Amino acid sequence: MRQIEAAIVGTGWCGGIRAEALSRNLLVSKLHIAENREERLREVEALTGAATATTNWRTLLDNPDIEAVYICATPEQNHFPMARAFLEQGRHVFLEKPLALTLEEGDELVALARRQGVKFTIGYSQRFSPKYAYAKKQVADGVLGDPVSVLISRHIGRGLGKKISGRVKLSPAAMEATHDIDFVLWCLAPARPVKVYAQEVRKVMAPVNGAPDCNWIMITMDTGVVVTIGAGWILPPGYPNFSSTWIEFVGSEGALMVDDTHRDIALMRMSQPGSVFPLSTMPGEYVGHVYAGAMAPETDAFIEAVIRDREPLVTPEQALLAMEVYTAADLSIETGEVVHLPLLRNPQAERLSLTLTEGVL
Length: 361
Known about the structure:
The chain is an alpha/beta fold. Helices cover about 35% and strands about 30% of the residues. The strands form five sheets. The chain has an eight-stranded mixed β-sheet with strand order 12-11-7-10-9-8-17-20. A six-stranded parallel β-sheet has the order 3-2-1-4-5-6, with helices on both faces. The chain has a two-stranded antiparallel ribbon with strand order 13-14.
């Protein structure tokens, strides 16, 4: 099987994980990295043995041998211009969420990728978690019967919450619940969302940077299934970047409960009072010779999709639909109304034309 050259733009937390995964992937002949922090660049260069390392991501555009590019840069405002630049050159692009900051930008990227005939996907890594894959299979195999309702509660620590909400004005719906929106839409497909109602709470984070503490979202599917998703980022300090998720999937013939609260490993030490919960971050982490989590397998899967000429597990259209749902949630919070889907685009005004209805779901 042939090998390809790949590149990473942004080698922070997630980009660093992906860079290390690619450096271990036998299908990658050369790895190229771009990072605007010189110290971090040299650190990842040494760790991965990258063929080239630059502080200017545009340098990668000048290398025609690079076939696949992973865009992991922050702040998230960089996603659209970077992705567009590489897609225009016919490169295969893996883009961390969010897809874009507006639906119009998302539409443009998806259309561009299809027009260029390249692979384009978004980093919804939870699809690569065995627990989530198991839930998907149970629904697809009809084990639960006819889906009735879904409840998901996701929370992360306030240290990471402050970091995320401090660099970009995107809500917990856009930055956290988006993973769960994608997961539910994936499980329930071909059913589609038809209306969204959402609320937020502002007590802890608002005085710091104006961000909400959490969003709670209700989504009604065209099959009548009701989905409730809560996402927050103000848990007290704990294990670095701790993440806790609980899922209830109820059907006419069964129910599935998924405990992703990461309480299965507890570490206690005399030097640090209390317990910490290792291996509890959403991206996961390397543990010696193995990887605990979904991000490394997800990284490898995109390389395989490129080489085998297969559609990525997360299609750009699916990512765009998830974006439409969390955009509707943000709009529902702003207006206090139910928002009906699909959202209509208005290219001239570059704003969304919304169909709102009074009442609640």
